[in-house]
Amino acid sequence: MGRPLDLKAFIVRARVLKLYRQALRTARRAPPKCADELWMTMRLEMENNRNCDDKQKIGFLISEGLQRLKVLDEMLDMQGCR
């Protein structure tokens, strides 16, 4: 395993994982033919930014992810997907 995380890195990691779990839960609500594509897109976004070290960029990505997740959640609500 890697080196131990300092407190700030641990908290950021926890925020990223929480966002990912929320995204997967939201994708489950989508119609079946869309859910797989959503899941793959989310996974790809996480993988593409997996090795990012820039704290400012990570904060931006988390904020952007939360915003995009909120929009997706609202769209699914409008479509009656619960």
UniProtKB/TrEMBL annotation:
Keywords: Mitochondrion. Residues 15-70 form the Complex 1 LYR protein domain. The keyword NAD does not apply. It comes from the Eukaryota. One of its GO terms (cellular component) is mitochondrion. InterPro entries: Complex1_LYR_dom. It is found in: Mitochondrion. This is Complex 1 LYR protein domain-containing protein. It comes from Platanthera zijinensis.
